[in-house]
Structures are given as C-alpha cells and as structure tokens.
Specification:
By secondary structure, this protein is of the alpha+beta class. Helix content is 49%, strand content 16%. The chain has a three-stranded antiparallel beta sheet, with no helix packed on it.
Length: 88
C-alpha cells in the first residue's frame, strides 16, 4: 500500500467515525480497529491538514488609502499589521 493509499484509507475510516455519531473508542471497538492506531492517524492527518501548503490566499477588498493619496496594501494579522506603500 502506498503512502497516499494509506492516507486515503485512514481518512475514510476517520470520516466514517465522525459521521457515525459514535465516540472514537466505541467505533473502534465495534469495528475491531486498534484504538491507538486510530488516534495516531487522526492526529497525523489533522496536523497534515492544518499545515496547509505554506501559502495564505488573500482577497482584495479595495485599495488601502495612505497619506498623500497613494494606494498600497494593508494586511491585518492577529496582533499586527503589514503595510506596503508605493515608493515614488
């Protein structure tokens, strides 16, 4: 089984458990799945999903207005902001 096949296999098992409404433990016991392996894969796939691809997609809402009538870009992040002002 390739890495991608293994990931898909566990993703389908985890999705099945979530859709079942059962606790992870009860689901695993009913289907004779090693509970430790289930939790390992659930954590592993969540961490992989949370990492993303390293890019953040930005959507324009209109140009930021800066003193002097110049337009640029302003990015707000938790705790700080980044401003890029054109240099003329």
């Amino acid at each position: 089984m390739t890495k991608e096949e293994r990931n898909e296999h566990w993703q389908s098992i985890i999705a099945e458990q979530e859709a079942s409404g059962m606790t992870a433990r009860a689901f695993c016991l009913e289907r004779h799945i090693n509970t430790s392996r289930f939790y390992h894969w659930r954590l592993r796939l969540r961490e992989h999903h949370d990492k993303g691809n390293g890019f953040l997609q930005l959507f324009p809402t209109g140009p930021a207005q800066f003193p002097g009538g110049h337009t640029g870009i302003r990015i707000y992040l938790v705790g700080f902001q980044i401003e890029v002002i054109p240099y003329f």
